[in-house]
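Appendix B, Record 12. Input sequence as logged:
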Amino acid sequence: MKGWHVDRSPVRARSSVDCGSRGVVFPAPSAVTANIYSCSPSAASADTCWREGTRKRVLCLVDPWSRTLTEYLLDRDPVVGVEPLQRPLPIGLVLADGRRCRMRVGGAWGALDQHPTWVGYYSCSRGEVWAAPDSPTGGIDRSSRVWTVQVGDRREKLEEVAVRKALFTTSARG
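Logged structural output:
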């Protein structure tokens, strides 16, 4: 893992996550290759994790802009592999105005004043990406060559901003 650092801090090393067992496992929403898991609880931000060899641990990408993987203990070993979703969602977005947005991992967000039924899909350096709760694209409008999102604070008018870069996850090869 040249160029990467593993956070094996004692606090994290005692924390455990559940990545599934008995044939029930979930793929990371941002995975484009097999065997990248989504683990719980959501407070661990362990939605993008790889098994660490045969050890009972996983390495998780908490911050998609860092070169650090966070180590967690496994509650139980996922005995099966997992295939990626047919239409993965980016773990991170870089918007045309420079904002960086991280995919939402659980948690409670307030309602959006102008669209009270919409939900937040990404938390950005300023504001959030919002869309209808059943958005299959995670709030990203992919209908044209340039993807766009609706970004804003809960109380301000949303603005449409172009996506400059979308970050997906894969497994390293050899």
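The first strand starts at residue 5 and ends at 7.
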